[in-house]
């Protein structure tokens, strides 16, 4: 992809539309995309290197359109099996996912299918590192900043109600992943998206009072199917749920570590699973029907 023409970020100039800020060029404020830059089928990944590697799977990688923004977002658009698909570097956390979902779909006409691929910490002791978890639902863990240890009725963390993945897209994704890997390597579960990587995932330390010693226990007591920790999926599914039918969303993640057993996945194995899962996701996006009308 070394010879690809890249659309470089430009100075913002004057922002227009304070409710949904756009640059004078028409580009969105954070992603820097304009009409025609993003396809109806989108793969969201957190890792910039991963996005670049996946883009090499396009039909004609040398023809990939790349849009880089000043806010560290990069969008790759090409075709897979003849179908236009965009890959977007999302970064980490629900705020970044919020930018990506809202701005990537701003100019897109018609329905959108969007899948997230990430890495994750597994919660089930019997699931080995390297397990790929497909989210059937997601819930969000947020720190309670008003928590007072002397109030025995208060909890230091809060867990939202679940939001569903799109059933048809999720089922197709699960089928595609399972066809490339054994059923034992692909599992469904309830994704637990967390506000932060350290405190809200129960990583204790001596420098800060995070009150998270019981966090994993708290999550598992309130969600028996809690399968994994990561930081983006809930926001993707929540926005899709509130998109008036425009966005169909699903997500999967590669288990990089098992939080219960301490087992970790070697990076060579991660990259191998990355290729397999990326091919499955691209096939899912290419085959998924987007003929359903938008309900206003």
UniProtKB/TrEMBL annotation:
It comes from the Eukaryota. GO terms for biological process: uridine catabolic process. One of its GO terms (molecular function) is uridine phosphorylase activity. InterPro entries: Nucleoside_phosphorylase_d, Nucleoside_phosphorylase_sf. SUPFAM superfamilies: Purine and uridine phosphorylases (SSF53167). Residues 42-261 form the Nucleoside phosphorylase domain. One of its GO terms (cellular component) is cytosol. PANTHER family: URIDINE PHOSPHORYLASE. This is Nucleoside phosphorylase domain-containing protein. It comes from Blepharisma stoltei.
